[in-house]
């Protein structure tokens, strides 16, 4: 296990957290009701905070000696390694909630395993973040039930969101040479082992919400290699604006 | 050489920027004070990963240590063991209640949360347990919004983590 491998793995987790946090923060001031506006802003903040912790750790491993702000805000699109689902535009509230459910229910299972990492940083990071994730999963689950078992319109929208996002869930469980090696070394999590439990939980929730599990499909991937959707550039243009316009600005 | 008790008492002068009735020691944010030949090492831990108050807390701690002329100090942040509401002292809980914030209940892990079981939260104004959660997320990362059905008071509940 090399320092570069550790850096790359940390960046993957950091980018997932940052990009989801950025997307969720777009709801600030636009939530369907005040309480949800506040809820998503709070959840976004948890991810930005987790991303900060991860980038700080990555900065210590970086041979180029970049700090956490440089890593978060000045890399090029192809250097971001987040999964594609997290960079997709928010869509309507059903789409945002469904992404929250798919991702947070996976991420809670992931962190529960990461807690046993033989790396002190990751076990501590997981222990901390799990406490936040429990609230995120509950929030998303409540809304999936409410919309699925709600009106005809809400049912239709959340079912559509479930179907449309489904081809993106596979990437959450994607393993490659890097993660296989790190997982075998007891450093990282074997994502593939989480699929069954995740599907079981998802099926149970969908039953309760009167939703149909999407049919199996081909799954998109590419984020881990820096191949992104057409939406990523726009997201970065907004997120990186200040650091691009005023390099090194602090406040 | 300064004593660690002296440092702890200095740190107790730093209030939490988001909940000014409590200081950072009562909150359990200050984890450790180590005195060595190299100086004073203060270790703090965030309540939530994204707690926006952490930077301010660090600056405030540095300010008060400077004020008391403590030389050679460092302030470092740790994530583990993860902060829990169980670290809040009884006095801190009572101060919260008097401020109109329902204090966190003991036994943080809130496993019931995932099962959708909510605990009885007492209204900080009238003490009634006839309260309902309006939203799991409130004015800061660490609070939920509640309303009392007995006296109609809307209030913040400091949620357990």
SSE layout:
The complex is a heterodimer of chains A (251) and B (161).
Chain A: H1 3-25, H2 34-61, H3 68-73, H4 93-114, H5 120-148, H6 152-169, H7 177-184, H8 195-208, H9 232-239, H10 241-245
Chain B: H1 4-11, E1 30-36, E2 39-44, H2 54-67, E3 73-77, H3 90-98, E4 101-102, H4 112-115, E5 131-135, E6 143-148, E7 154-158
Parallel strand pairs in B: 2-3, 4-7
Antiparallel strand pairs in B: 1-2, 5-6, 6-7
Question: Would you list the SSEs of chain B in sequence order as H and E?
Answer: HEEHEHEHEEE
List low-pLDDT spans of chain A. none
Number of domains of chain A: 1
Proportion in β-strands of chain B: 15-25%
Annotated CATH topology of chain A = Ferritin
Kindly name the structural category of chain A.
mainly alpha
Q: Please, what is the average pLDDT of chain A?
A: 96
Indicate the overall shape of chain A.
Answer: globular
CATH class of the largest domain in chain B: Alpha Beta
Can you walk through the features of this model?
The complex is a heterodimer of chains A (251) and B (161). Chain A is an all-alpha fold and 251 residues long. In chain A, 64% of the residues lie in helices and 0% in strands. The model of chain A has no long low-confidence stretch (mean pLDDT 96). Chain B has two domains: 4-83, GMP Synthetase, Chain A, domain 3 (2-Layer Sandwich), CATH 3.30.300.130; 86-158, no CATH class. In chain B, the strands form two sheets. In chain B, strands 4-7-6-5 form a four-stranded mixed beta sheet. Chain B starts with a helix and ends with a strand. The A-B interface holds A 35-36, 38-39, 42-43, 45-50, 52-53, 120-121, 123-125, 127-132, 134-135, 137-139, 142 and B 46, 48-52, 78-84, 110, 113-114, 116, 134-139, 141, 145, 159, 161.
């Amino acid at each position: 296990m090399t320092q570069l491998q550790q850096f790359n793995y940390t960046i993957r987790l950091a980018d997932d957290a940052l990009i989801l946090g950025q997307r969720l923060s777009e709801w600030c001031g636009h939530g369907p009701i005040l309480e949800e506006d506040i809820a998503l802003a709070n959840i976004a903040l948890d991810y930005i905070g987790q991303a900060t912790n991860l980038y700080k750790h990555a900065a210590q491993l970086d041979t180029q000696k970049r700090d956490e702000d440089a890593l978060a805000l000045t890399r090029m699109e192809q250097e971001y390694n987040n999964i594609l689902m997290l960079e997709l535009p928010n869509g309507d509230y059903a789409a945002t909630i469904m992404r929250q459910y798919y991702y947070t229910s996976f991420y809670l299972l992931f962190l529960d395993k990461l807690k046993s990492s033989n790396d002190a940083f990751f076990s501590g990071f997981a222990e901390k973040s799990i406490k936040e994730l429990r609230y995120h999963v509950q929030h998303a689950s409540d809304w999936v039930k409410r919309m699925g078992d709600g009106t005809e319109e809400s049912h239709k929208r959340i079912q559509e969101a479930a179907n449309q996002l489904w081809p993106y869930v596979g990437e959450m469980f994607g393993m490659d040479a890097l993660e296989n090696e790190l997982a075998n070394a007891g450093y990282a999590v074997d994502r593939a082992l989480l699929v069954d439990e995740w599907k079981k939980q998802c099926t149970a929730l969908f039953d309760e919400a009167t939703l149909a599990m999407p049919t199996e499909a081909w799954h998109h991937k590419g984020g881990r290699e820096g191949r992104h959707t057409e939406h990523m550039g726009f997201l970065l243009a907004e997120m990186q604006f200040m650091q691009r316009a005023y390099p090194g600005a602090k406040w | 050489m300064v004593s660690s008790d002296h440092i702890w008492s200095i740190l107790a002068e730093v209030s939490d920027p988001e909940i000014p009735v409590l200081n950072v020691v009562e909150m359990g944010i200050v984890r450790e004070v180590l005195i060595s030949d190299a100086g004073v090492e203060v270790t703090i831990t965030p309540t939530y990963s994204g707690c926006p108050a952490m930077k301010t807390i660090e600056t405030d701690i540095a300010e008060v240590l400077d004020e008391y002329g403590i030389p050679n100090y460092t302030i470092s942040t740790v994530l583990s063991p993860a902060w829990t509401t169980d670290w809040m002292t009884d006095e801190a809980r009572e101060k919260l209640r008097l401020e109109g914030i329902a204090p966190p209940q003991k036994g943080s892990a809130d496993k019931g949360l995932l099962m959708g079981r909510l605990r009885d939260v007492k209204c900080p104004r009238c003490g009634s347990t006839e309260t309902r959660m309006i939203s799991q997320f409130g004015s800061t990362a660490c609070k939920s919004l509640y309303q009392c059905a007995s006296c109609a008071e809307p209030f913040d509940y400091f949620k357990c983590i």
